[in-house]
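Q: Hi! First time doing this. I have a protein sequence and I read that you can turn it into a structure. Is that right? Here it is:
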Amino acid sequence: MTIQFLGMAGLNDGTETTPPSGPAFDPDYTLRLAKAHEDNGWDKVLFAYSSATPDPAQAAAFVAARTERLGLVVAHRPNVSYPTFAATTYATLDQASSGRVSVHFITGGTDADQAAEGDHLPKDERYARTREYLQIVKQAWTSREAFSFAGKHYQFEDFAAEIFPAQSPRPVISFGGSSTAAYSVGAAEADVYALWGEPLEDTAEQIGTVREAARVAGRADAPKIQVAFRPILGRTDDLAWERAHRIEAVLQERLRSGAAVARHRRSLTQPENAGSQRLLRIAREGSRHGAIWTRTAGLTGGGGNSTALVGSPETVARALVDHIELGVDVISARGYDTLPDAVDFGRHVIPLVRQELAHRQATVGLAGAGLAGAGAAGAGAVGAQRSFPGQPAA
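A: Yes, that's right. Below is the predicted 3D structure, encoded as structure tokens:
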């Protein structure tokens, strides 16, 4: 049982709770945050995209040149370039980074942010365009012979790449969405299907939907599953919840003051995309589901990764292991205080999750040899007492 941890490659220190202290692209902060992930057990970081933010591919190239092993997941929207250009762009970046690049393709969640870049296709047509885009990019990365394409959105003749990715056969493609059109495209074409954090039963429902859509598409396998949360950690559960309510108060104040809490030109009450609609529905049904807290999603209109996981490192690790047991392969996490939260999560949650998974694998192996239960109280158990940064052990 393996798991990957995906952090956020923030390009400045701003979050929903704190305005940035510097420019939109702060190279010093960007590098410090990337190294904090690389040095504290994370596998990859995501370079996000919206119409007005710095170019994630160039930011990823900046980080690639200054790190050694950190994976680089670059968000890309199909409306901004021709697919053959995107294929050569990310093949070049993969070569420059010695095979550390993945690409997260975003169809676009709001008409307004798409229109800001001159894209006026309706939502379902955007998904159809994305499917063609993914098919072309994958072929451009792997075909050593010229090929042509005749689709509704893209038509070209005899494209022959001279640059190919360092990875074989190609970089990983991830994709997200919670609409019928999204499931159809992502389950057919993506390697990783990205979901926002939801309670266990809702996550299980979505995983089942993705797997069924993959079967309908004729795949022998199904995409790996990624879920995203906002961890709010404390040495104890009580301290974590105190911090959570302080974050809630700041979000409410920023809403009252008219600050731009939600980016990407989206409604806080009537979002267009199905994923945000799901998060708002779940938030209305109840804000607490064990360690899962949907109040942050409710306040911010279900904007992106906005569902919190609140508790001690042990509590948060247990909640993550529960999701992994459903079939989750990638955990995406970013805190409200991005850099120190990345360090804390990496030092105090990631090891617990990895140890527990290793412990369970070992226990299953022992059970198969007639030694079930041996070592069950070993150091890998999630319940083991650990200290939290800057505070004494419980």
